[in-house]
């Protein structure tokens, strides 16, 4: 499998090429098909709001806040896309505070002020919530 290593800004898709055995010639060159990829069981994944994603030239990122309220740009790998929520396979952990709706201009090391979360406004995703 290989990818274009770049997300198309218009369609927000990633061109991917899969190599498959095709001894009977059932798959035609250039054709589209439905593909199901089995995932290994026991993966540790997180679901976060899709509005926490940053699409950058060097890949997909999530801005997190460290204990000193400084921004870190974590490179992430997406699993399933559920629309308003995406599954993250790597790049964030349960203790991370995630910036929602980060501006495109956000930079690593930037100092931010975090709004405290309350139990009544508890997020519905696994990682903790933080706003810049």
> Which percent range describes the beta-strand content?
35-45%
Looking at the structure, the CATH topology is: conserved putative lor/sdh protein from methanococcus maripaludis s2 fold
- Biggest β-sheet strands, sense, barrel: 5 strands, mixed
Q: Give the second-level CATH assignment, the architecture.
A: Beta Barrel
Give the structural class.
Answer: mainly beta
Global shape: elongated
**Name of the CATH class:** Mainly Beta
| Spatial separation of the terminal alpha carbons | 37 Å
Number of strands: 10
Q: Please state the CA-atom Rg, rounded to the nearest Å.
A: 18 Å
Helix content: under 10%
pLDDT averaged over residues:
81
Summed up, the domain count is 1
Structure annotation, total helices: 0
| N-to-C order of helices and strands | EEEEEEEEEE
| Poorly predicted parts | 120-132
Could you write a compact summary of the structure shown?
With 132 residues, the protein is an all-beta fold.
SSE inventory with pairings:
Layout: E1 2-7, E2 14-17, E3 46-49, E4 53-56, E5 59-65, E6 71-75, E7 77-81, E8 85-90, E9 97-99, E10 128-130
Keyphrases for this structure?
132 residues, elongated, conserved putative lor/sdh protein from methanococcus maripaludis s2 fold, single chain, disordered C terminus, five-stranded mixed sheet, three-stranded antiparallel sheet, mainly beta
């Amino acid at each position: 499998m290989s990818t274009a290593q770049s997300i198309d800004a218009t369609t927000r898709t990633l061109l991917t090429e899969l190599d498959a055995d095709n001894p009977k010639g059932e798959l035609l060159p250039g054709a589209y098909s439905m593909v199901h990829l089995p995932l290994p069981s026991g993966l540790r994944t997180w679901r976060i709001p899709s509005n926490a994603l940053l699409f950058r030239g060097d890949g997909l990122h999530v801005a997190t806040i460290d204990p000193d309220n400084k921004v870190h740009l974590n490179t992430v790998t997406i699993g399933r896309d559920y629309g308003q929520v995406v599954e993250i396979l790597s790049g964030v952990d349960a203790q991370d505070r995630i910036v929602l709706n980060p501006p495109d201009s956000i930079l690593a090391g930037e100092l931010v002020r975090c709004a405290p979360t309350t139990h009544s406004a508890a997020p519905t995703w696994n990682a903790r919530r933080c706003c810049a």
